[in-house]
UniProtKB/TrEMBL annotation:
Compartment(s) of residence: Cytoplasm
UniProt binding sites for NADP(+): 7-12, 67-70
BP terms from Gene Ontology: L-proline biosynthetic process
Keyword Amino-acid biosynthesis: yes
Residues covered by the Pyrroline-5-carboxylate reductase dimerisation domain: 158-262
One MF annotation (Gene Ontology) recorded for this entry: pyrroline-5-carboxylate reductase activity
Keyword Membrane: no
Pathway: Amino-acid biosynthesis; L-proline biosynthesis; L-proline from L-glutamate 5-semialdehyde: step 1/1
Function per UniProt: Catalyzes the reduction of 1-pyrroline-5-carboxylate (PCA) to L-proline.
NCBIfam families according to UniProt: proC
Pfam families with a match to the protein in the record: F420_oxidored, P5CR_dimer
Similarity comment: Belongs to the pyrroline-5-carboxylate reductase family.
Gene designation per UniProt: proC
Protein name: Pyrroline-5-carboxylate reductase
Length: 268
């Protein structure tokens, strides 16, 4: 894999870098971070990254991966305008910034817009990828190589990226919230916090593995837990009566609406 430079060393950058090193990718990885230089030093020790500056990253990386918050992106694009070359590939993980913003600010530079998730950390990301207008097959292969190393990938069109984000990009947070509420339910029923946490987490791990390995659909797996007139049915009936489907659909829609709002804000 070519030399990669990360601009931004937050949660998402660390998850990807950790994943790349975990699968044995030994390419040069340069990283710059505006805040928290201690974190950069720690990452140098843990993942053999080279703490760097934006200027050096532009000089020495074939792939530049933008991992700053959307509000900081326009500033970074301005900083990149002078020295970036069309032989370099730009990959952005930012939510809510359309491809045209990158292409207007950096004409002629190939850009791939991606939406991974933080499970890159454990090589289980689900990453959506969208190709920009000057992206060739070799650029697609370069982007795919990074994200296939840290999980599964799916090429889609840009109009589907916000729907994808509302499922797999933000989705881990929904699962963590559900886990938190399950732990709290256990505590409310009299279990200790420690026991409730172990029960909820192990249940989530087991169910995830069943989804992955059993070859059965989620509906079929649910039915196998649910005895007629039994305890599970009593619990599921509460989810249905309170319209869990409506809650989840509305949450995914809110996620997409916010992304669209950001896209209007950041299209400059
Ligand atoms: N956290 C997540 O689950 C996901 C995040 N994303 C996207 O990833 C991007 C980063 O998100 P997080 O890692 O969660 O944010 P974060 O806040 O943890 O990290 C961003 C980092 O960028 C640094 N930074 C800001 N401006 C900079 C500059 N000019 N030069 C160098 N470093 C700079 C900050 O100091 C910070 O450490 C966002 O655009 C977000 O939309 C995408 C998918 C999932
Ligand atoms: O919350 C956010 O905006 C980012 C995008 C997907 C996950 N986290």
């Amino acid at each position: 894999m070519q030399a990669i430079g990360f601009i931004g060393a937050g949660n998402m950058a660390e998850a990807i870098i950790r994943g790349l090193r975990a699968v044995g990718i030994s390419s040069e990885i340069r990283v710059t971070n505006r805040s928290n230089q201690e974190k950069l030093q720690k990452m140098a020790e843990q993942y053999m990254i080279i703490p760097s500056t934006l200027e050096k990253i532009v000089k020495e990386s074939e792939i530049i991966l933008l991992a700053v918050k959307p509000k900081d992106m326009l500033g970074v694009l301005k900083d990149l305008q002078k020295d970036l070359k069309s032989s370099q590939l730009l990959i952005t993980v930012a939510a809510g910034i359309p491809l045209k913003t990158y292409e207007m600010n950096l004409p002629g530079i190939p850009v791939v817009r991606v939406m991974p998730n933080t499970s890159s950390y454990v090589l289980k990301s689900m990453t959506g990828l969208v190709q920009g207008s000057v992206v060739h097959e070799n650029h697609k292969r370069m982007a795919e190589e990074i994200f296939q190393a840290v999980g599964k990938t799916l090429w889609i069109t840009e109009d589907k990226l916000n729907p994808l984000m509302s499922i797999s990009g933000s989705g881990p947070a929904y699962i963590y919230l559900f886990t938190e509420t399950l732990i709290q339910a256990g505590v409310s029923s009299g279990l200790s916090e420690v026991d409730a946490e172990m029960l909820a987490k192990e249940t989530l791990f087991g169910a995830s593995q069943m989804l992955q390995e059993s070859g059965k659909s989620p509906a079929r797996l649910r039915e196998e837990v649910t005895s007629p007139k039994g305890t599970t049915l009593a619990a599921l009936t509460v989810f249905w009566e309170k319209d869990l489907q409506d809650i989840v659909t509305s949450a995914a829609k809110a996620c997409q609406d916010r992304a669209e709002e950001m896209e209007r804000e950041y299209q400059g």
